[in-house]
Amino acid sequence: MDFTGKVVLITGGGSGIGRATALAFARRGATVVVAGRNADPLDETVKLIESENGKADRITADVSRARDVQRLVTTTVESHGGLDIAFNNAGVFSMAPVAEIDEDVWEHTLSINLTGVFLSMKHEIAHMRANGGGVIVNTASTFGAHKRMEGTGAYTATKAAVSALTRTAARENIGAGIRINAVSPGPIESAMSLRPGETEAQRAERLRDALPIGRAGTLEEAAATVLWLSSPESGFVVGHDLVLDGAATA
Ligand code: NAD
């Protein structure tokens, strides 16, 4: 897969799946703009890409704020001459049984995981419609449309909604040359899949028994899936929510 000349925007690009995907796109020739709330982790991603002679930029933005997202898309286009691919990946996890979810936690989780994806798509689609098309990949989760687990109500609700929003937006925009899909990872080796106080070795032990494949997905496997969905190789895949979970939901 070759992304030479493409401009790629990645939210949540300062860590985990977002950073790994930024590195993977840059290694295949793309100019990558990473976005997130804090500058330091984004700078680290840019440094990693530049140390491999790749092209990268960072823009601080909170995806739950409409004005930030509008500025993010506008600045990306103005600074880099366009926007070809967007990976709407920023997200937060929270755990509590439904009867105990604090309203602030509920609002916070929705504002980032769901409103963040909505706002990102809204502004990305507007640009892509005016410029002949593009590709969007949203991050959902197996905890959502594919699987439920006690204690993940707020998170699961947002991710199921991202899956539904992705399909609706895909139908609305494929006629305009904008191909929209989602990825639904199972546990991936980022900080998010560690339970409170858990070490990486303990996580590995837990998942050895819990998952048919016997391990978490690697960051590189998650990134490769996003790259494939962003490439012309997957051109007939539209409005799909691609599960990568080592058969957890099979
Ligand atoms: P992560 O915590 O490393 O990444 C999440 C990123 O989102 C962070 O960089 C964080 O700074 C950013 N972010 C959070 N709130 C933001 C906001 N308001 N504005 C901008 N950026 C914000 O974990 P990850 O595993 O790399 O998560 C990436 C995505 O993958 C998330 O949407 C997550 O829900 C999803 N996911 C992860 C797993 C897993 O096992 N790791 C499984 C399924 C889905």
UniProtKB/TrEMBL annotation:
Q: Which InterPro entries does the UniProt record give? A: KR_dom (IPR057326), NAD(P)-bd_dom_sf (IPR036291), SDR_fam (IPR002347)
Q: Tell me which Pfam families the record gives.
A: adh_short_C2 (PF13561)
Which residues are in the Ketoreductase domain?
6-186
> Which PANTHER family does the UniProt record give?
SHORT-CHAIN DEHYDROGENASES/REDUCTASES FAMILY MEMBER
Give the protein family. Answer: Belongs to the short-chain dehydrogenases/reductases (SDR) family.
Protein name stated in the entry: Glucose 1-dehydrogenase
Query: What is this organism's lineage?
Result: Bacteria, Bacillati, Actinomycetota, Actinomycetes, Streptosporangiales
